[in-house]
Specification:
Length: 327
């Protein structure tokens, strides 16, 4: 029902440990966004239901899980604000209170533990994170908590320390290609290689890029990064980017970081053809002479230092990009 490409060994280990009652009560799965961490957990749930229930019961429980109405399995994620009709920027403390109620309620299904999936723990605001910590400190019997994190450093240390941590690395190209091919995106091999390089092997990010106009800004971004001062081209690019929603803009920042990492490797003569596969990235060599190593590092540091504040305080995206380009 859930097709998992890659990470099959990890899935087998977690499933066997659960069946033998040797699995830690809180499991933190972390790694780059879009590589399939949630798909991995979905596959685990699917395989677990197959093992526990007969065919008819399995399909019933699977349907409940898919609709997030299963009495023993809860998915905690950002919800839509009823007033603004927009997705909230964080998982709130009210949601944690509801989660505590779910974990404290008696289970109506005795064959399976209470399972909580947090997608993602990065979205917990500080009050929600502190409240959730109490759940980890006093785990309920017969409960299992999965936390997904795209950036483990964003979690408070006390949450990280109370979980079994499993790191997921980027996909090998062959798995990445299979995932994109299964999505029928109508990409040729060279285009798939480009997306692989650009997203550090993240199929989820590649699919999002394909379905958006972010990728259309790639060439313009490279050209703007090589200009020495403010220009109409930079202003026009910043104006286009300012219209991106937060998720699109976060993905664009990841694109910038990919470019900067590649340029820095060029400066260090540290390019491995087995890592960067596409001809498009090879063309970046033509631009590398227009920027200094210090400029590359300063721009990367600027993104890393300021991106969280950009979204936390809803800062001006246009000014954010213009400052980046003027470094």
């Amino acid at each position: 029902m859930f097709n998992l490409i890659g990470f099959k060994k990890q899935n087998e280990i977690i499933l066997n440990n659960y069946i033998s009652n040797n699995l830690h009560s809180s499991v933190l799965i972390y790694g780059p966004k879009g590589i399939g961490k949630r798909t991995f957990i979905n596959k685990f749930i699917n395989d677990l239901l197959i093992k526990i229930f007969d065919e008819n019961s399995y399909l019933h429980h699977l349907n409940l899980f898919k609709n997030n109405t299963h009495p023993n399995i809860k998915i905690l994620e950002k919800v839509t604000d009823q007033k603004t009709k927009k997705l909230k920027s964080h998982i709130t403390i009210d949601q944690i209170r509801q989660t505590k109620k779910f974990l404290n309620e008696s289970s109506s299904v005795k064959k399976i533990k209470k399972i909580l999936i947090i997608d993602s723990a990065d979205d917990l605001n500080i009050n929600a994170a502190n409240s959730f910590l109490k759940i980890l400190e006093e785990p309920k019997k017969n409960t299992l908590i999965f936390l997904i994190s795209h950036q483990i450093s964003s979690l408070i240390p006390t949450i990280r320390s109370r979980c079994l941590k499993i790191k997921f690395n980027k996909h090998e190209f062959v798995d990445f290609k299979e995932i994109l091919s299964n999505k029928a995106l109508n990409l040729n091999d060279e285009e798939i290689k480009f997306y692989y390089d650009l997203t550090f092997g993240s199929p989820g990010d590649a699919i999002t890029l394909f379905n958006s106009n972010i990728i259309d800004c790639f060439d313009t971004t490279i050209q703007s990064m090589c200009l020495k001062s403010f220009s109409k081209e930079n202003t026009d690019l910043a104006s286009i980017l300012s219209k991106f929603n937060n998720d699109e803009f976060k993905l664009y920042i990841s694109l910038l970081k990919s470019i900067l990492v590649f340029l820095n490797k060029l400066k260090n003569n540290d390019i491995n053809k087995n890592v960067y596969l596409s001809n498009k990235f090879e063309l970046l060599k033509n631009y590398s002479n227009s920027v200094t190593k210090k400029n590359i590092i300063d721009r990367f540091n600027y993104l890393s230092k300021n991106e969280n504040d950009l979204f936390t305080y809803n800062l001006d995206k246009k000014m954010f990009i213009l400052k980046f380009l003027n470094i």
